[in-house]
Amino acid sequence: MEKFTRLEGLVAPLDRANVDTDAIIPKQFLKSIKRSGFGPNLFDEWRYLDHGEPGQDCSNRPRNPDFVLNQPRYQGAQILLARENFGCGSSREHAPWALLDYGFRAVIAPSFADIFFNNCFKNGILPIVLDADAVDLLFRETAAQEAYRLTVDLEAETVATPAGEVFSFGVDAFRKYCLLNGLDDIGLTLQNADKIRAYEERRKAEAPWLFM
Amino acid sequence: MSAQTLYDKLWQSHVVHTEQDGTTLLYIDRHLLHEVTSPQAFEGLRLAGRKPWRVSANLAVADHNVPTTDRSHGIADPISRLQVETLDDNCASFGITEFRMNDVRQGIVHVIGPEQGATLPGMTVVCGDSHTSTHGAFAALAHGIGTSEVEHVLATQCLLQKKSRAMLVKVEGRLSKGVTAKDIALAVIGKIGTAGGTGYAIEFGGSAIRALSMEGRMTLCNMAIEAGARAGMVAVDDTTIDYIKGRPFAPKGELWDKAVANWRTLVSDEGVQFDAVVELDAAAIKPSVTWGTSPEMVVTVDDKVPDPAQESDPVKRSGMERALIYMGLQANTPITQIAVDKVFIGSCTNSRIEDLRGAAKIAKGKHKAANVKQVLVVPGSGLVKQQAEAEGLDKIFIEAGFEWRDPGCSMCLAMNADRLEPGERCASTSNRNFEGRQGAGGRTHLVSPEMAAAAAIAGHFVDVRELSEV
């Protein structure tokens, strides 16, 4: 996993609540047995005017001019600004894979769905919860200023606007440590292999039917 | 010891290790796998030179991509076929038990786990699928995980977790005739919203929940995720234990007695405090129909499509306006005036025998309306299908002009060939009415199996409470 430390990036606004993972990456693309290559199909049904299928060359597909990510001013965006309950629905990790493959490294929203939130951390994407008023302000500023950029500092747990306004966010210490160092948490868990074995022995004595 | 919730008990009995910030290594008893969210996890395991920690904890089945029509020719779509074959190969090479496509035990992963007795009270159950909450009906701690976590569970038999808060959803009283567990689920989501349960594990309790069958409890826990809660659960009682007895993976003999004694403790202690409590009156719950593109956009069948003009929150209002355009609906239209093009009876929410019986009761001796192009009935497993056929339900459906299919996820998410065409409107017993969920441009209305069958017969939504069959 790629480390996340500090990001100074262009912001793209997606102004709707309850954006679900079916919208982030529609089901037909979940047939892939790979982890990469989902970026061209991120938000496929909103982004293109035709119906997308896996394996298609997306460069010549008709784009929906009304969809925010198709606007020239948001090309190259790395920070997605979103509304409540972003990432709800299916547990598909293809959703953060698609966001990452497209180029997003951080998502800012007033709230996230649990499984999506968790999946982001496993892939070097930082999901940032800010209160609804702060998110509102960021939406207004993003709309008002071309090339609006934010600076995210994971170590300091802050988001800074171009005008110098700073918002703090919280992140679990363990997740922060993994993200800052780009660590594979399976390796970390296996450092506790003896504890897992000891648990299994104890549990087998208590509840042997669980180990049949 | 102070009083504990069922969730506290399940959590505490699985803690392997806790970090200073509360991040906990939680032991996983049962890992269910399917073809869509596992290939990258197996690949990761191989690349790191790792093996499954405890092979016997895993059970796999292909469900999302499988065809629901004649399977003798295999899967026509080469990409779907490769994904299913990849699961077959991975299970064979790692020695994981898999019910393959032509095995009678094959079915939707959340139907077969309980059906086989592979889901037991007191277990932690995970699967790379958000509807894993279903298994909480057995007083198990069950939730969906991503593919990285699938790999983590394969490699370590554990998950890194933070404890959620505990919410009690208490439903007291008796349900009216024609009102089902699906309507309770939709009523709860309508009340607390699709993010109302975020950060919580929900326990469903109260006399109306205790009166539900295991099928009904599974329907309810299945949709806990649509309320934002990763886990839903119901305490153990006789209904739980009677359901499990004699199932292939369930303990037998002396071990059974020991297990039952342990399972009886899987209830929230008297007087325990929950972090949040939501109360519903069962008698006030009516058959429900979603009108929009989120499960919280729901009304009762005797109501009308809501008017965005009445909504004061601007983000919600624009969401409602967008949903009405997508759904092709006008505000204030009575729900019973909405005509449907297709009907889907199936999915991990509503494809068990009781669901099929409920739909068959309505369809018996009738025929689908002329405006309804297709009615799919997709049983949750090969064994559910067998049972339904033994009861003659298949004949009732076929005589009603419904299609009697083979088990799988089918048109709940349309990864196989079963799907809506753009603009088609569907009464569906599934769990998500998101844009494009049942096919690009398709319009989904979530309902109970009884309501779906009634819509198929009438050609539009009807209040099943007014039917003599109920």
Overview of the molecule:
The complex is a heterodimer of chains A (212) and B (470). Chain A is an alpha/beta fold and 212 residues long. Helix content of chain A is 32%, strand content 14%. In chain A, α3 links the parallel β2 (79-81) and β3 (106-109). Chain A is globular and about 65 Å long. The model of chain A has no long low-confidence stretch (mean pLDDT 97). Chain B has 470 residues and is an alpha/beta fold. In chain B, 31% of the residues lie in helices and 17% in strands. Chain B has helices at 6-12, 39-47, 78-94, 109-116, 147-156, 181-192, 207-210, 214-222, 238-244, 253-263, 314-327, 353-363, 382-390, 393-399, 449-458; strands at residues 15-18, 24-27, 30-33, 58-61, 97-99, 124-127, 141-144, 158-161, 165-172, 200-205, 231-233, 276-281, 288-290, 298-300, 342-345, 374-377, 403-404, 425-428, 443-446. A 5-stranded parallel sheet of chain B has the order 5-4-3-6-7. In chain B, strands 17-16-15-18-19 form a 5-stranded parallel sheet. In chain B, β1 and β2 form a beta hairpin. Classes of the chains: A alpha/beta (212), B alpha/beta (470). Chains A and B meet through α4, α6, α7 and α8 of A and α2, α3, α5, α10 and α11 of B.
